[in-house]
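Here we describe the complex-level prediction in full. Unlike the single-chain runs in Section 2.1, the two entities below were treated as one system.
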Amino acid sequence: MYVLIVLVKENEDRWVVKKLPVIEQRRYEPLECYQKIEGYINNQINQVWFINQSIPLVKASYVRDKQVFLSTKQVKRWMNRASSKWSIGWYKLLDKNIKLKKSDDIDAVTFWNSIKHRLEGKLLHIYELQRSITYMDNRINITLDQLYDYLFVWSWLDLIEVYSGIYQKPAPFTFKKRLECRRCLNTDIKKWQVHCYSCGSECYYCEQCLQLGKVKSCSLLISNRQQDQKANLAKPTIHSIAHYIQPYHLSDAQEDAVKQLLESIIEYYQLSRRVRKLRKKDKPLQYLIWAVTGAGKTEMIFPLIALFLSMKKTVLIAIPRRDVVQELQPRIAKAFPTYKVISLYGGSRQVWDFGQIYVTTTHQLVRFSSYFDLVILDEMDAFPYYNNKMLSRTLKRVQKDKSCFVQLTATLPYKERLQVRFRQLNYIKVPVRYHRHPLPIPEFVKTASLFSILQAHAIPPTLKHIIEQSHQRGAVLFIFLQRKVYLQPFAQLLKQNFSYLAISYTFAEDVDREVKVKQFRERKIDILITTSILERGVTIKKSDICIMDAHQLAYTRTAIVQMAGRAGRSIEDPKGFVYLLGLEKTAEIKGAIKDIKHMNELARSKGYFKS
Amino acid sequence: MYFIGEQSYCIQCHKLLTMYDNSKVFIENINIKLTYFCLSCKYSLPYIHKVKCTICHAHQACYNSCTINQELRQNFSSVAYNDEVKELLRTFKFEGNVAAGQALSPLFLLPIARYLKETKQFSLLKKVIRRGLFSYGEGTSSYNIVTSVPISRQRLIERGFNQATFFAKHVANRLNAPFVNFLYREDGFEHISHLNKHERERVVQHLYKIKQDTIDRLNSKLSDREIKPINIIIVDDIYTTGNTLKACAKEIKRSTRFPCQIYGITLARA
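The structure predicted for the assembly as a whole is:
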């Protein structure tokens, strides 16, 4: 089943689409088809480009790569051969009985200009593009059938690039045929034998990005054709380093780290490619900033962003968690009032806008491709980004070539620790908090396990001492548990023994978690019992930490450091207490204490502490 | 499913599967091999053990006044329409996860066995229980034909597959019977899932139409011979009021020229 499309060239830049009636391929031979078409097209044609040649080529390209549209090279070659103002293309429609409507009067080019900005730097599924057009402009209700026509014209005019969703990855030195999802770059695609009705043959789909909309091998992904890079080649004006650092009032330790970072970046961009190769500085710009908890990481980003904005480049700040994105967006908008800041997360309203600074969750990056010059990843060891292959792959895809990639953490996981040890990663340490006091060192106290405490229904004297001590000091207390089953009975036990304290508990599925945290911040709650959900991203003045069952396997080295980092964050009370209650002192606990002590010693040797 | 050197996860609770999750579920002398589920999820599925109404296969009290009518004789289903089954069917139908459909399809063994007992095809039942799937090229049994409830063409293009046909092909493979597409659904109607019980009855009547070409071919082949009545099995995913199955059966019964009995086999019973 084929449908004929004719492009009429009116002016230099204006093309109009016209459709001709349907011809069934089964009934007629290709030559007969050709004669029929000639009948349909009236005497207006001077010269018709030879169709018989095109059919096998179109079919071949359709079957092998599942690519519906012709490449522009082929078309241009044929156009030159035909040398006429008429050119004819074929494409297979998916269904037999689709009713053909008269093509709309909107010109392809003018329509393109109205929706151009929505495709900027993006890789969209065809359903997403359709949704964006119908939802944003209430006037235009476009059907999929019409959209296919427009795509056909735009791809001919070199405005967009159209890809198939899943394609066979070229692997020259192996016999393995590997399929790859073009959106999430997943290479292990299962081969279910399911007949796909929308393309009429066997079709593969990607399982990993299924929740973001199904990508099949016959579904189309659309991206804006990239502009010439010559426009960006003009050398930008770069000020001195002090110009970028001064307005943000950083501390000594922060300033040293930022200076080190900015010097190497500016050197990279100022040198020409040849000199860079000679001096062996042609490595990609990748940095890891290892700053302790409460060091003021977000303030350290600002001079970096200011540098890239002055070079007229786009900036991305990717964060795994959604609520942190919502917190960070107004802070950055306040620091850079002249630029447009866009925050993207599940259900945000700015999905189709474009600006200079993007603050997004890591899942939203699936829609982008090679757009950003500076990529900052905050909390790289947090769930769901860490150990998720899909997200790390897409984060690489988003960067342009010659871009800068900066990761921020408070704690290093094992894999990155090895990379740092063997100098594969450029890293910068910030060993002191912004108030220039040493980190509180956790103290191990041997106590019975939580299960036996609940069974005996009596609080051990060590825990009793900790609670009374923090109450006399006027501080609030965090208690971390491993399992949420124990939350309710443990809270009840504490309430019986300490009737003068307000005690509450939260967990991941709790509906009014934010309300409880807010109350805790206002000191209406004295003791908050949580699982590891409040492990990071919470700052509360004058608080103590207590971790139950610290010997358990779930409490890794990084988790203990993060939880200990909740204590003593404010200037008024820089010294908090951290207690680890458990049966034995495991290697993880020893490692965490070693990490914190190491950072304190480093800061002391450099003279960052307040005397 | 457990392979050596390959990780795979439970389709329902997303836990890593081990060797010990490989055992079968044993119900009514049948081993059901659910390879995509972990052990606890396998046994927590709401299988229908006792049936209150033999005609519509209700596991709770049947409020419809069920009588043996000429169009749809009986319905058989395997599990109750639980929240967990609902979630699995949603991922299969709307998200397009074929693995969920593949995981659910072995559950059809239970209603198939009940259907074979009811129609007294004991020799076939023995084969189905022992061997499961038939090998290719074995002689087909001439008394069963399998069809499925159609969906509209527009939705077929959106999803890429019909979930009822997916199950029906599995059933046909189990029974070693031919799969024939009798029916099509007219375009331009909305979903019936959000409609009232009485509204459904009104809407459904004119929704399903028969394909004239295929039914003519069948009529010409089968009407001349004097044989036992042929069993036509309609496969669907959910049975709620039974109006869709009845409408399909009515349409088939009206146009056939040979003696036939029509049964329904569904996955879930609401």
